[in-house]
Structures are given as C-alpha cells and as structure tokens.
Design brief:
eight-stranded mixed beta sheet; elongated; 2 domains; Rossmann fold; binds cytidine-5'-triphosphate; five-stranded parallel beta sheet; 14 helices; alpha/beta
Length: 403
C-alpha cells in the first residue's frame, strides 16, 4: 500500500536561540516519515551546527546561494521544487520582516520568495519584539498572504523575561506540520478512540494492569486529527503527551472506560478500540492496603469486564467499528475469528509480544475484502496508513448505505 505520509519539506532555520529546538524538530519530522532538507541562514549557524542537522536529517545541509552541489547554481530555485512545504523554525523577527517585504538576500529568503509550495513559520523572539507594532503588522500581512503562522507560545524566555514570543515545542510544530500535510480523508468526521491499558484495583495501592504503552492508540488519534477528524479519546493510564486537538477523558478501569465510551458513542461516526482492556476485574477491591498474613494462599475473585467494542458494535446505529487484536500465535485465524465474533468491520492484528510497548509495529488488516499487511514501521507511519484504510472502507460502507 502506498505510504500517504511520504512528504518532503524544507526546514529553514534562522538565527535565534530556539534554533536548538530545530534539532528535535528534524528528528520528529523524519521519524514521522517526512523527508527533511535543512537550509540554514548564516546566523542560524552561529547557534547550532549544520553537522548536527545533517546527522539528524540524513542529508547535507544548505547554507549558501552559491552552493556548488547544485549543478546549475540554482539552489535558490531547485531546492524547493517538488517539496510539499517550507517550514521556517525558528523564524526571527528580522526574517519575518524580510518575508513580509519579499526581500531575498540569502538562500532561505530567496527560496521562500521563489517557492511554489505553502510556507509555515514558527516565530521565536523576545516578547517586546513580538508585541512591537512592526511585527504585529508583518504577521498580519503574512497571514493575509496565506503564510501559516504556528504559535508562538507564552512562557519563560531565553533573555530571562516572561511573555509571548517563545517558539512552540518541537513536538507541537511537528504535529502541526504533519496535520497540515496530511490528506483530509476524514474531514468533519467524529472519531472515538480508546487507548492505553486499564488498571483494575486490588486494594488501595495495588492493581492489575498490562504492558500497553498507549503509543499505538495515541498515534492513531494523531493520524485521525491530521486527516481532518474531530477526535475524542478515552485513555487508560499512560505517560504520553496528549495529541494536540483531541478531547481526552482519562480513566483507570475498564468500567470507567465503558462509561466514557457510552457517553460519547452516539456522536461518533467511527469507533477505534485500541485499548488493551482487562477482561476481568477484582470483585470488591479492598478500600485499604491488604496486610500480609500467615495464610499460605491469598485468593482474588475476578469478575468479567464489559466488552466495550462488542457493546458498541451491537448498538442499533453503531458507528463504523475497528478493533485491535493482540495475539501471541495464529495471528490471522484468531484475529478473524475475533472480527466475526465482535461483528466489527475491520480488525487490526499484531503480535502481542512484539507490539506492546514498542515504537514500531507491523500489522495485518482484516476486513470483508480480505487481508492487507502493513510493513514494520514507526507507529506514527502505521497509524497514518491505517487511517487511510479506514477512510476508504468507511467511505465504501456509507456509499452502500445510501444506494
Ligand atoms: N476490547 C474492549 N473491551 C474489552 C476487551 C477488549 O473494547 N473488555 C477491545 C479491545 O480494545 C480490542 C478488541 O476488543 O480492540 C480485542 O480485544 P482482546 O482483548 O484481544 O479480545 P478478547 O475478545 O478479549 O479476546 P482474548 O482476550 O481471548 O484474546
């Protein structure tokens, strides 16, 4: 299957202290499957070395209009051709002023002026520079010209002051860039996602849980947001940052997850159950910590949890349902059996021992039309391919319903 996430961007760095964040941004973008060509201004090289960015992007960095590596000496034109966007991060007040007036006195500003693709900028400057009437005018003009302005954020500044002007964090810029570039397969659709493990208490301090990290569910949520969906998540306990733009309800137990899903399901067009829900919970967890005794055995009575996915799929006007099957053997047979039993349109199967907690995943998609394999890749990439597949199947079912 073609990878819809394969995009190419120019990442331009100008000379501000936030240039250090561009290293992490490069890593985040490339990890998300985006090809990054770094271009730096002379003053950016005073803050961070091209060698660092070259190592992280895997490509030589360009800093000069007259770079001999471009055979016709047209680096200022050539580099931006075939790119999906130019992202300038950090964008200093000076560079923003140059962009506003169409100045082109170095490689990056010339590339911006000669571009055929969208331009995104992440301003980074002292709060007074940001508040200055000249910068306000310049930003308003750039927005009017169709430039996408990401941030800035408010907070501690390198100069010791506090206020508006600091550059967004790398992860926020990477998410915004990915969202900007993604095809809008699910524009306006409401997607409800469960993610992470559940935690079933035994007593005041102990509980039963599993090794799910939530990474796959969170990646699916991000990919759905990128595809234009309105995402509601119900998340078990994880230590991951929330996908920007998702509405999140945090829960511990399967029963709480079920309640949150019940509250939100009526509005959902698509339900994706990624959570590793405990099949059983402790009957009557103790209010206080269980003390050690001389008894040779301690017995816990477990009772079954509600099957959230099964319940959603059995509703009269059920959303399009997607389940995840983590199997340790007989992957396709067990997963297809689960798909039929739970009556879901799509089951995503993976190997429990390889997928849980890992950064990469390799999955098999099982639906009425057969089986597709998505090759091993970072979970972000797999999630985007999965969302593209869901959008295709969802579109087909809606057409069938209308016919
Ligand atoms: N699921 C759910 N609620 C549960 C258990 C599972 O919503 N109480 C969902 C999971 O989020 C996943 C799918 O059902 O999308 C498959 O879960 P799994 O636990 O693997 O399936 P089971 O039917 O519990 O089968 P088994 O544990 O025997 O493999």
């Amino acid at each position: 299957m073609a990878d819809p996430s394969h995009k190419k961007v120019i990442l331009g760095l100008t000379g501000g202290i936030a240039a250090y964040k561009a290293a992490e941004l490069t890593r985040q973008l490339t990890q998300g499957g985006i090809e990054v060509q770094v271009v730096m201004t002379e003053s950016a090289c005073g803050f961070i070395t091209p060698a660092t960015l070259q190592a992280l992007s895997g490509k030589p960095v360009f800093t000069d209009m007259w770079d001999a590596r471009v055979s016709d000496n047209m680096a200022h034109i050539e580099l931006s051709r075939g790119k999906d966007a130019i992202v300038v991060a950090p964008a200093t007040a000076d560079f923003i002023a140059k962009l506003t007036h169409g100045l082109a006195d170095d490689l990056l500003s010339t590339l911006c002026l000669a571009r055929e693709c969208p331009l995104l900028i992440a301003p980074a400057m002292n709060r007074q520079m940001w508040d200055n009437a000249a910068t306000r005018r310049n930003i308003a003009q750039l927005e009017h010209d169709g430039v996408v302005v990401l941030g800035p954020a408010s907070g501690d500044q390198a100069c010791g002051e506090v206020g508006m002007g600091r550059m967004l964090e790398a992860v926020e810029i990477a998410e915004a860039v990915s969202a900007f570039l993604a095809p809008k397969f699910l524009s306006g659709k409401r997607v409800l996602i469960t993610a992470g493990p559940t935690f079933e208490p035994i007593d005041a301090v102990r509980g039963i849980t599993n090794r799910s990290s939530g990474k796959m569910g969170y990646a699916v949520a991000r990919a759905a947001i990128e595809a234009g969906a309105k995402v509601t998540m119900v998340s078990g306990p994880v230590s991951l940052s929330s996908p920007v733009g998702a509405e999140i309800t945090r829960v511990d137990t399967a029963s709480q997850m079920f309640e949150a899903v019940r509250r939100n399901v009526a509005r959902a067009d698509i339900f994706i159950a990624v959570a590793a829900v405990a099949d059983y919970r402790v009957d009557k967890p103790r209010e206080h910590k269980i003390k050690k005794t001389d008894e040779r055995q301690l017995q816990l009575k477990l009772v079954p949890n509600p099957d959230i996915l099964g319940w959603v799929a059995a509703r009269p006007r059920a959303p399009f349902c997607v389940g995840f099957a983590a199997e340790s053997r007989n992957l396709d047979v067990y997963a297809d059996e689960k798909r039929r039993r739970k009556k879901v349109q799509l089951m995503v199967a993976n190997r429990a021992q390889e997928a849980i907690g890992a950064d990469d995943n390799e999955v098999m998609l099982l639906d009425d039309a057969g089986t597709h394999r998505l090759e091993r890749a970072p979970k972000e990439v797999v999630a985007r391919q999965l969302i593209a597949h869901i959008a295709k199947l969802y579109g087909a079912t809606r057409r069938k319903v209308k016919a």
